[in-house]
Amino acid sequence: MKLILAIINHDDAHSVIQHLTQGGYHVTKLATTGGFLQVGNVTILIGVDDDRMEGAMEIIGKYSNSRRQVIPATSEMGMGMFSSMPVEVTVGGATAFVMNVDEFKKF
């Protein structure tokens, strides 16, 4: 058995969870914040049998899209003056961790 912990951009989370559920996976959703832009993410937990792990990972990869976004970046110009220049960064996508589960108990 495996435990998939996937951190997904908030914009993609609904689609990922919907397709996982349609595929017969049981998903636990946690609201999280973090990353470079300190924006909302969704962390999902999925317990799967070993033979279904790749299917879940394919769904996560297919429906988690990275995209380019322009954000303001501030740089110090000296003497306490700051300049704001736009910077293009890649956002979205997903980061997934797969862990072995040695034992679990349902109460």
Structural class, please? alpha+beta
Unreliable residue stretches: none
Order of helices and strands: EHEEHEEE
Overall body shape: elongated
Supply the CATH architecture. 2-Layer Sandwich
Instruction: Specify Rg, calculated over alpha carbons.
Output: 18 Å
Residue share in β-strands:
over 45%
What count of structural domains? 1
Describe this entry's structure for a reader:
- The strands form 2 sheets. Strands 2-3-1-6 form a 4-stranded antiparallel beta sheet, with helices on one face. The chain has a two-stranded antiparallel sheet with strand order 4-5.
- The protein starts with a strand and ends in a 7-residue tail after the last strand.
- The protein has a single domain (2-100), classed as Alpha-Beta Plaits (2-Layer Sandwich).
- A hairpin with a 4-residue loop joins β2 and β3.
- It has 2 helices and 6 strands.
- The longest helix is centred in the N-terminal third of the chain and has 13 residues, at 10-22.
- Helices cover 22% and strands 54% of the residues.
- The protein is of the alpha+beta class.
- It has helices at 10-22, 53-63; strands spanning 2-9, 27-34, 39-48, 66-78, 81-92, 94-100.
- α1 packs antiparallel against α2.
